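Repro:
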Amino acid sequence: MAIKNRLQFGFFKQPVIEPPSTWDIGITTTSSNETFGIQLNGTSPNITVDWGDGTVETFTTTGDKTRTYASAGNYTVKISGSFVSNGNIRLNNGQSRVQSTSIIPTIPGLTSFLSCFFNCTSLTSIPSGLFDNNPQVTDFNGCFSGCTSLTSIPSDLFANNTAVTIFNFCFRDCTSLTSIPAGLFDNNTAVTDFNFCFFNCNQLTFIPAGLFANNTAVIGFDACFRGCNSLTTVPAGLFDNNTAVLTFAGCFQGCNSLTTVPAGLFANNTAVITFIFCFVNVTLTTQSYSDLLINMASNAASRRNFVQFYGGNSKYNLAGQTARQTLQAKNWVFNDGGLA
């Protein structure tokens, strides 16, 4: 009865989690007179930066904004403010000094995280909900490109970013990543481009099934996994729902540990206009490559004419040759290892 009464009179209330008011970036300088800075892009910024050394500045113009620190130490840079429109903030001077980031607060007018954490080579982790307060953002092009110490990605990192259309180069050269979390892009249904998204993630060994299942508007996977030379498997159905894709140019180029792929990897991608360089420097087994050709030839009538397909060093068997000829009748041009 006591518990019931307490509930009735509101003694047990859910804690209210207040959204952050500043974007806190932890940096470290190792000697005197080292510089850290940000770049502001967009219309009419009104951005306040507390540099963490007692200096606070408000910027109303675009361009590079920097601070030189008098002595070595750990500093917390705090950013807040707004743009009228088309806002973008990049950590672009002394990025290697960035050690940590808080969840980013609501920044009105911010529409792009283009190159936001580019070359933050000391950043090892990112918080869950990092971008939750800015659902209006449409662009993550190169956001974490060059974050060579980043070891993991929160599964809900982009959960609130339903307006995003571009993930090009997003995790390029994240050479410490070994896996991609399931559901990472589940809510990003407006995305059109994943070009170079995981390019040169050379420790990546795992791609979850259904990674792109909800991204039905995608038209480009160019070089998406290029240079992922630790990748040994590709899940069945990876591109099944991406029926609007036009190009897989260089998608698995340089994935030289890859020896088999699902026969139906491109079964539903009949709108594709090019697979140029798709498997360059890859040697699939004769059976795997042949099965891939046979599957694509099975719905040749619905596929484009004049398509280039690069099978790398992979060879095909007689059944694969027949399938290849079916596609060649539609003026497909092949570059591969030839008949086994």
